[in-house]
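Forwarding the complex inputs:
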Amino acid sequence: EPEVTQTPSHQVTQMGQEVILRCVPISNHLYFYWYRQILGQKVEFLVSFYNNEISEKSEIFDDQFSVERPDGSNFTLKIRSTKLEDSAMYFCASSEALGGNQPQHFGDGTRLSIL
Amino acid sequence: AQKVTQAQTEISVVEKEDVTLDCVYETRDTTYYLFWYKQPPSGELVFLIRRNSFDEQNEISGRYSWNFQKSTSSFNFTITASQVVDSAVYFCALRNTGRRALTFGSGTRLQVQP
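Prediction (whole assembly, two chains):
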């Protein structure tokens, strides 16, 4: 069964450094998402991306965040200047474009630890 | 605004017991979509079931069943004859029509004891 893949599984970064989290969505999906989950807390929406542009973003997704689809398969989340509070599990997801009830399929996540 | 409440923080059952996970949601939209996801100890999020707001028919799929009641804004999920492998955190999620974002509840940790 096709799946969303994320790399790396764990990223350790010094505060203030830039980090790029990578995702390969399911190949025939057209909507892409990033969510985060701070340890022990609920999953929070960051951003959705469709047709090479952001379609929706949350208040969390401020100027230090950006997303990109650099080629036909990868989808990346960049955090420009990391803060301690950015430590979380980051999930990438994708869904088919048609149908309101199409589920979002999630990757295994990247655990980001900011030191 | 939309909100999902999972009042049960943690549930512990013995294998083969049935268990129901509660989910109550709030939304102003008349059309919306509800989902359940499972997060096992390994950390990934696994899609389980979905329901449209305009379809209140309850269904059974294997050991899983769900009870959607629009009148009480509830979307409860039942596991029949629970197994140790069902031990995980279960999240209920809501998506309003016209939006892409999923709003998650805080999750219910289910522990199934052998």
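The CA atoms of residues 24 and 72 of chain B lie 8 Å apart.
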